[in-house]
Design a protein that fits this description.
binds NADPH dihydro-nicotinamide-adenine-dinucleotide phosphate; NAD(P)-bd_dom_sf; 252 residues; oxidoreductase activity; alpha/beta
């Protein structure tokens, strides 16, 4: 177990898994700053109802570079010279379509823009703050208390375990977006090894959210409590990996 990160950013935190992650993170009194993002901060009722002076609710639309730049600058003011320890890329969509000739170009582009391209851009733009945090510690040990990018992927991103194709729901575009984001995680982890920034992908399980549906196996609380406890166990051995919420490995 590593010590708590001093600062955490969670994207897409106004509902579902993102909100659940924030509800778990506020229980960790070792964290100094929790930055939870929502597309529309005014409408993030449940997030705004969490009364904790360490919580900062800030706007972010992940597909807008301007929005990301504004967020990075505000987070920089909050964390100061400590930098940012942990970025959780959670915001995501599952584009709906119906016919065998879909997803069409627009649907594929939207799906990949939110779940893949935006994860890459958000992570790149937070790199200076993550690098600052990583440089505060000497040696080669990696952890979320040093600097880490955790991406909420999906088991549907696994190519090895894909035996159902587009069944379950219109999963082709969604599967592609999560396979690609797993490749980002592995590549980013290798590229940033010398900067001592850890990167992993997680599947949260099938969770009762607007995306997962109410028939899903897990409550948000069940999924996010396991996820947060796994975050604190991440180290060099897990760098670049793809895991279930309990840290058992997923096949890419
Ligand atoms: P929800 O649909 O409940 O919530 C999605 C969140 O992402 C919302 O906060 C939403 O904001 C935000 N979001 C969507 N698009 C954007 C955008 N362009 N910019 C900023 N924020 C955006 O989904 P879940 O909580 O279920 O999913 C969270 C993550 O977990 C996703 O990456 C998903 O793929 C993954 N996942 C979920 C599973 C499940 O069973 N639920 C299973 C496997 C993976 P807004 O409220 O403004 O729309």
């Amino acid at each position: 177990m590593s010590p708590s990160p001093l600062s955490v950013v969670v994207t897409g935190a106004n509902r579902g898994i993102g909100l659940g992650l924030v509800q778990q993170l506020v229980k960790d009194k070792g964290i100094k700053h929790i930055i939870a993002t929502a597309r529309d901060v005014e409408k993030a009722t449940e997030l705004n109802a969490i009364k904790d002076p360490r919580l900062h609710v800030l706007p972010l639309t992940v597909t807008s570079d301007k929005s990301i730049d504004t967020l990075v600058s505000k987070v920089g003011e909050i964390v100061g010279s400590d930098g940012l320890n942990l970025l959780v890329n959670n915001a995501g969509i599952a584009v709906k379509y119906g016919s065998k000739t879909e997803p069409n170009r627009a649907q594929l582009t939207e799906q990949l823009d939110v779940n893949t391209v935006s994860v890459v851009i958000v992570s790149q733009k937070f790199l200076p703050l993550l690098t600052t945090a990583a440089s505060k510690v000497s040696g080669d040990a990696l952890s979320v208390s040093r600097a880490a990018v955790v991406t909420i992927s999906s088991g549907l991103g696994s190519i090895t375990e894909n035996t159902t194709g587009s069944a379950l729901f219109d999963a082709l575009a969604y599967r592609m977006s999560k396979s690609a984001v797993n490749q980002f995680t592995r590549t980013f982890a290798i590229d940033l090894k010398d900067e001592h920034i850890l990167a992993v992908s997680f599947c949260p399980g099938w969770v009762q959210t607007d995306m997962g549906g109410q028939q899903a196996q897990l409550t948000v609380e069940q999924s996010t409590s396991e996820l947060v406890s796994s975050f604190n166990k991440l180290g060099n051995e897990q760098n670049g990996g793809y895991f279930r919420r309990d840290l058992t490995p997923f096949q890419f």
